[in-house]
Amino acid sequence: MKKKKQENYSLFKISKALLYCVFFAIGIAQAQQEAPSWLDFAQKSENGQLNQATLSDYSYTGYHFSEKELPDVSTWNTISVLDYGAVANDDNYDDAAIVAAISAAEASVVPTVVYFPAGRYKVSSTETENTPIMIRGSHIVLKGAGAGLGGTEIFTDKRGNHPYRFEFKPLSTPNTKITNTAAKRILKGDFEIEVESTNGLSVGQTVELYHQGGENLDANMPGLTYNSIWNVANNNRGVRTLEKHVITKIEGNKVTFKNPVQYTITAEFTGAQLNRYETIEEVGVEDILFTSDWLNYPEDYKHHANDIVDYGWRALKLTNVKNGWVRNCEFKDWNEMLQISTCIGVTVKDIVCSGKKGHSSYYAIYSYGVLFDNCDDIVDQGLSRDNVKGQGHGPGMRWSTTSTVFTNCQMQFDQSIDCHGFHPYGNLLENVYGGCFRANGGAENSYPNSGPYLTFWNFVHDSRYNSVTFNFWDPVNRRTHTYGYPNFIGFTAPDPNENVTLQNTGLNELQGEKAYPLSLFDAQLQLRLYGAYMSASSSKPEYLAKYANDGKS
């Protein structure tokens, strides 16, 4: 973590680092086990047969699909909110000044940092509580002086009708059809598709691949039966894909994508199409502590008790963003903290969720390729109506989102991950410590909570159960962990007496052991960028995946 968030969090990070060191040392001491699914993936990749691999390729995730580091904005044009009338550490509202500074940044037509010098800024008055602060242009970063003591705090006072207080979103987000695909099947792992017409398509363009149809269920989750309550099984719906793809080549009626299709699309039955998809790009948020008056509201959180405890104060949302980021920030005392919606190629790195418990922490929805790296939930206040620490919904995947990766994230004891229904698919949680599967969100008609190709890699389960069975597919009895053939590789628990049985899985490899490579995401990225194969020998510190092939271009 580059910035310390607060003194108690510094101690938490030290404890977490020591804990990881202990687990790592134990793993080194034991015989290393390479996961068979990784061997299969590497072999299929070498043979150009990714669409036949059991595991999805999760490496097309994060800012520029993790092919570039997050940018150093120290050389960007910088304007201070103080120059537009903001005053830190007083009791006046700074909305107008912040909006004016953002407008100036948008008008500058050069990459610009909107800078918040150290101090506390106050937003959301009676006059502005229903008006979010919008960022509409590309190449704009909101940056503070750090999220810890002596840094920058932005405090949201009034809740209004529950908008996200800050939102990045283009002025226009058209979603009209460009062309139909050919009436033939598109396989998971494919990069090339055929279309009826290439008019309106160009190299470098980002488009949305849309498909829906009941036949896609058996093509991706063969042999499963469905409850009639679930929308996915009614009116030939199936799972809906809204995948964002970058076009790299057009040849005749063939279109090649940079990033792979993550779900087998049965276009021969119900068709598929490419839609317009407009974004803003190269935008971010850095080094800010976001707080709200949820702390002082006289009621504690209980799930769906009322709209205020669920949605009263909401912090930050990115909508239709390509190649964006949020880093080195803390979200303290919020009902909902961070939503990444309808985006592609976004990194959320080194963030902390803290303070009074609320509804949700951080999640992706309708997006492709969102990377959550080193995101920690230490929420430990306001527990009178729900005594489980952490936000009500943990790391989240919602509504058709795919290629979301959660890596090196800390959850609270017994906190649930959040596959929130309407069929997220093809997502990865690796080296996520703590938490369990007991209370995923989503109404029953939105089931399954997750579609196929959900993978847990070296997931450390930490819950209140001494003995528990998680049955991931039961179309008769409602279970809030209904996943389509989830994959578990290296599933462990810190308590050796915790007996966890996993039923109706796709894969269950090396349960109770550390799987190698330690990071599937790093290993797949190395394989894609450098052709470097990560094996059990990579457990040696000098050969960790992140350092492999340094100096190669």
Automatic annotation (TrEMBL):
Q: Where is the DUF4955 domain?
A: 390-530
Cite the entry's keywords alphabetically: Signal
User: Could you tell me which residue ranges the Rhamnogalacturonase A/B/Epimerase-like pectate lyase domain spans?
Assistant: 79-148
Q: What is the superkingdom listed in this entry's lineage?
A: Bacteria
Q: Does the keyword Signal apply?
A: yes
Alphabetized InterPro entries for the sequence: DUF4955, Pectin_lyas_fold, Pectin_lyase_fold/virulence, RHGA/B-epi-like_pectate_lyase
User: Which is an annotated Pfam family here?
Assistant: Pect-lyase_RHGA_epim
Q: Where is the signal peptide?
A: 1-31
Name the UniProt record assigns to this protein? DUF4955 domain-containing protein
